[in-house]
Design goal:
Helices cover about 45% and strands about 20% of the residues. It is built from 23 helices and 26 strands.
Length: about 750
């Protein structure tokens, strides 16, 4: 094969040598065709034969049209036969299904005809995998691996293209492992990298075969020692007949031991599928144990003596094996190689060989290599099966967890919704305004419970966005206590002991209030007959890294304790476990798990202490800051006719938000989708002061809507809202752009304050 470099035509790749096997991952059709046209144009202009197997989403005529657009004189190349464009159905799935051997033979047939027959400088091909389905992946992956080992011996460039919409994480790793180079689109351009080699098998095999190899070495050593003793005995017999007679009994014993040793070694090799061998470098002769016939699928009686394993090695792996041999002979380390062999029946097996070099004591030159070869095909299959079993087990665990969570949520929400529905019916039928207000207050309280449950679930699943700022924890405690007095029964006394001048904490205010709420509600359930709930704050200095895992520094200590029933040691061990509860059907077991997660997100620690009938105490340590906390935001005021566009697909919520804003002095326009909002924006000539939009809409995200309005020449201020935020919504990226978010559910005062803040910014 010629070793000269070729112009790939791809800017990110540049020059590349014959025999390269590349894969390209693309996002869309335009990205694929842009790169492929450049790739083929470079080949045509370098007098190479080019063959394009078109993707499932591009017809042969479309592909030809694209080439005509980018290369003048393209039809001349087609006419003289230098360019071939063929459908994937006529190449990969000819006859209705994919066949590895037929496709490989097809490449070689065209190569022989065009390169050797017509004298082209080389051949470059490309095929796309968008036609593949899941059932065909295993066979196609084997085809890619065979192709990877075959192209190195030809004046050939192969570019395999994969759509990111049609390939999963496991398949992507398979593709990278079976190609020399990888092309992937990133940041508007193409990145090119060499694929990493696989090294993990070596460690797995060594661990799996450690005991067997130890026995093998012991047996081999015994065999060599027995042969040496036998040789010495034969020498003694030649010198004297008397010595021979004296040693005859010993010789028979040794021969019996040798036969037993050989039988044990043969049995061990058969069980482990190991072939032992010796290679005399001086005569270039090889000798193998009988297991070689099983490995190669050859009959011992019909095959005679196997004198060379080299001709059974897969062609694409031969260079790597030869390099490993050269390294061992040059004294750079033991001979270790992993490669494929082709059995007599055509099946491909994966093997691993190891050997040690011996030196001729007279000349000091390499004398030979003694080693073993093991069939590891089944071992690899078992490894893959174990991985599949592990994945199924994890999926089963996830399903069980989801079922448990769904049941708990349904139970809690059914209770809340029953309360809301009954109080709503009573309020509608009650003529007395004072009594009606009591029903409405119960509805408001139940709504608060639903809000709290939703927030706990989102915090527990890491989907509730945290908004960190400097806060005075004493202020958060005072607000929480005001709320707790309406939630706790009258027979529970609330005491606070808040130290003056406490250090500010960089925290999420709502999450801190959630900690207090969860601990207080747990305390309430532990005091069914009444008691005392105490909340204390203190500045705390840790001078060394030895206090319950806290590193040295300044902390704000928040201590919540009760005089309830307490917990025993076994319950204490599991107190922070998700879904663990001692309340029977009264709780989901998320309260303390959520508290622990919030404390962890704030880089703090929580410690619990309790004894049966002596109450319980929970102390939270939050890292304290040196600078003062920010001043409270200005209370929301009324509007002055500012024009606000509401984009919300939930009609009931949209109507009530519009009502609140209209009553507060704003002119309001309503839209249920991004498309409808764009229509309102055009109709009003872009005269909108604020867009208040949900992040998740039925046709596109609110962030995309804001960007579209900006591109169209309008740049209104935007306030986003959502009740569920995670990485799929793109919110982490949006936070870096300083976009404002009002988290659902929100109160009237919170809505008006957020609107006023955005309009004044």
């Amino acid at each position: 094969m010629e070793g000269d470099s070729r112009d790939s035509g791809i800017k990110a790749v540049g020059q590349i040598k014959w025999g390269a096997h590349l894969c390209q991952f693309y996002k869309d059709k335009a990205a694929l065709l842009e790169l492929l046209c450049a790739y083929f144009i470079a080949g045509l202009e370098s007098n190479e034969f080019c063959m394009w197997v078109t993707p499932a989403h591009t017809t042969v005529e479309e592909a030809k049209g694209l080439m005509r657009k980018h290369l003048s004189g393209f039809d001349e190349y087609l006419e003289k036969g230098q360019m071939m464009v063929i459908s994937h159905l006529d190449w990969y799935k000819k006859g209705g299904s994919f066949e590895l051997k037929r496709v490989l033979d097809g490449w070689l047939e065209i190569y022989s005809r065009e390169i050797e027959g017509r004298g082209y400088a080389g051949m470059r091909v490309s095929g796309d995998t968008s036609w593949l389905c899941e059932d065909e992946w295993k066979g196609f992956d084997e085809y890619e691996r065979v192709l990877q080992g075959s192209v190195a011996g030809y004046r050939l460039l192969v570019l395999c293209t994969y759509s990111l919409d049609h390939i999963g994480a496991k398949e992507l790793l398979d593709v990278v492992a079976s190609h020399d180079f990888v092309l992937i689109e990133r940041g508007g351009g193409w990145e090119f990298a060499e694929s990493p080699g696989k090294r993990r098998l070596m460690e797995g095999l060594e661990a799996a075969k450690e005991e067997l190899e130890s026995k093998y070495r012991e047996r081999t050593s015994e065999l060599f020692e027995a042969n040496l003793r036998l040789t010495n005995e034969i020498g003694e017999r030649a010198r004297t007949e008397e010595s021979l007679r004296e040693s005859l009994t010993e010789r028979k014993t040794m021969e019996e031991a040798l036969r037993k040793s050989e039988a044990s070694l043969i049995a061990a090799q058969r069980l482990a599928r190991i072939v032992s061998w010796e290679w005399d470098l001086r005569t270039d002769k090889e000798a193998f144990s009988d297991e070689v016939y099983t490995l190669l699928g050859i009959s011992k009686e019909g095959a005679g003596i196997i004198d060379c394993l080299k001709r059974f090695i897969y062609p694409g792996d031969l260079d790597a094996v030869s390099a490993a041999v050269r390294s061992a002979v040059e004294g750079l380390g033991p001979f270790i190689a992993e490669y494929r062999i082709i059995r007599q029946d055509g099946r491909i097996r994966e093997v691993r060989s190891e050997g040690e070099l011996s030196i001729d004591p007279k000349t000091g030159a390499p004398a030979g290599i003694t080693g073993f070869t093991q069939d590891v095909t089944e071992w690899k299959r078992l490894q893959e099966e174990n991985e599949r079993i592990r994945e199924r087990h994890l999926n089963a665990q996830r399903t069980e967890l989801i079922g448990k969570l769904a049941g708990g949520i349904a139970h809690e929400f059914n209770n809340i919704m029953s309360s809301i529905k009954l109080n709503s019916e009573l309020a509608l039928s009650e003529p007395d305004e004072r009594a009606k207000r009591e029903f409405l207050e119960d509805i408001r309280s139940a709504s608060g419970q639903a809000e709290n449950l939703t927030r706990q679930l989102l915090i527990f699943s890491s989907n509730e966005p945290a908004h960190f700022a400097l806060h005075d924890i004493n202020g958060a405690v005072r607000e929480a206590v005001s709320m707790l007095r309406s939630l706790l029964p009258e027979n529970i006394e609330i005491r606070t002991d808040l130290e003056d001048g406490t250090w500010p904490v960089f925290a999420d205010r709502l999450h801190i209030e959630q900690i207090l709420l969860n601990l207080a509600l747990n305390a309430r359930d532990a005091m069914p007959d009444g008691g005392r709930l105490s909340i204390k704050t203190r500045n705390t200095v840790v001078t060394s890294d030895n206090r319950d895992g806290l590193v040295a520094g300044r902390y704000l200590s928040l201590l919540v304790s009760d005089t309830g029933t307490g917990m025993n040691a076994e319950v204490m061990k599991r107190a922070f476990e998700p879904f663990f509860t001692t309340k029977g059907g009264k709780g989901m077991g998320l309260g303390l798990a959520v508290v622990k997660r919030i404390v962890g997100e704030h880089k703090g620690e929580i410690r619990a202490s309790s004894e049966p009938f002596k109450g319980a105490s929970f102390e939270v340590f939050l890292p304290a800051m040196n600078r003062p906390a920010a001043q409270a935001k200005e209370t929301a005021g009324l509007g002055n006719g500012e024009r606000i566009l509401i984009v919300e697909d939930e009609e009931r919520l949209r109507k009530v938000v519009a009502l609140v804003l209209r009553k507060s002095g704003y002119k309001v326009f309503e839209s249920r989708s991004a498309a409808e909002a764009l229509g309102v924006f055009r109709r009003e000539g872009g005269k909108v002061d604020l867009v208040f939009t949900d992040v998740i809409l039925e046709d596109k995200s609110g962030i995309e809507l804001a960007d579209e309005l900006s591109r169209r020449g309008g740049a209104p201020k935007v306030l986003f809202t959502s009740g569920y935020m995670d990485i799929k919504d793109g919110w982490p990226e949006a936070e870096g752009r300083k976009l404002k978010l009002l988290t659902k559910p929100y109160e009237v005062t919170e809505l008006l304050a957020a609107v006023k803040e955005i309009l004044r910014a």
